[in-house]
């Protein structure tokens, strides 16, 4: 989706775009939908290891438990044009934020941030990667991304005229 200059846009970034960032994309889509706001929301990874793959089955199961469908999502890598397409590029941990800062072209419009920096009292905290852990880790990740996306939505979507 390309967006008009007044449509808010968000890109969530993690390592491979199969666990944390797709869950954040789904959480933010729900926040926009609940507010009746049109927004350009996507996710990507800093690497291309899983390009074209669906989110991890455990991430999709977690999304399903929360009433969301992760099946249509496909992993992709961050691209140079993302820095002009999106208003907000949100990293899920500090390593992603550092990688994005290195990739960001001079003069791009994107504002880079760490997801948990939008949650009072959680600034500087990473969303833990659940990939190597159990299914329970995905629920913890979901709680973090949902909290972060609610805070983002309150800040950037509430009182937005684009409906």
How widely separated are the two ends?
16 Å
Rg on CA atoms, Å = 14 Å
> Which strands sit side by side, in order, in the main sheet?
2-1-3-4
- Here the CATH topology equals Rossmann fold
Largest sheet: 4 strands, parallel
Structural class: alpha/beta
| Quaternary organisation of the protein chains | single chain
Helix content: 25-40%
Number of domains: 1
- Judging from the principal axes of the Cα atoms, what is the shape? globular
Mean pLDDT: 94
Number of helices: 5
Q: CATH-wise, what's the superfamily? A: Response regulator
Number of strands: 4
Task: Explain how this protein is built.
The chain has 163 residues and is of the alpha/beta class. It has one domain: 3-Layer(aba) Sandwich (Rossmann fold), CATH 3.40.50.2300. Helix content is 37%, strand content 12%. The chain has helices at 20-35, 57-65, 82-85, 94-103, 135-156; strands spanning 9-14, 40-45, 88-91, 111-114. It has a four-stranded parallel beta sheet. Helix 1 packs parallel to helix 2 and helix 2 packs across helix 5. The protein is globular and about 40 Å long. The two termini are 16 Å apart. The model has no long low-confidence stretch (mean pLDDT 94).
Task: Give the secondary structure arrangement, pairings included.
Layout: E1 9-14, H1 20-35, E2 40-45, H2 57-65, H3 82-85, E3 88-91, H4 94-103, E4 111-114, H5 135-156
Helix pairs in contact: 1-2, 1-5, 2-5
């Amino acid at each position: 989706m390309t967006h008009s200059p007044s449509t808010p846009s968000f890109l969530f970034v993690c390592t491979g775009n199969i666990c944390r960032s797709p869950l954040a994309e789904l959480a933010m889509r729900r926040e926009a939908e609940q507010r009746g706001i049109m927004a350009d929301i996507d996710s990507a990874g800093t690497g291309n290891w899983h390009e074209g793959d669906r989110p991890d089955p455990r991430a999709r199961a977690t999304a399903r438990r929360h009433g969301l469908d992760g099946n249509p999502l496909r992993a992709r890598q961050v691209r140079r044009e993302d820095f002009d397409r999106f208003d907000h590029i949100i990293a899920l941990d500090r390593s992603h934020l550092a990688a994005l800062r290195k990739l960001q072209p001079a003069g791009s419009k994107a504002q880079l941030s760490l997801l948990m920096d939008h949650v009072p009292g959680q600034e500087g905290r990473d969303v833990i990667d659940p990939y190597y852990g159990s299914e329970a880790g995905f629920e913890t990740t979901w709680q973090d991304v949902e909290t972060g996306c609610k805070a983002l939505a309150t800040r950037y979507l509430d009182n937005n005229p684009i409906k």
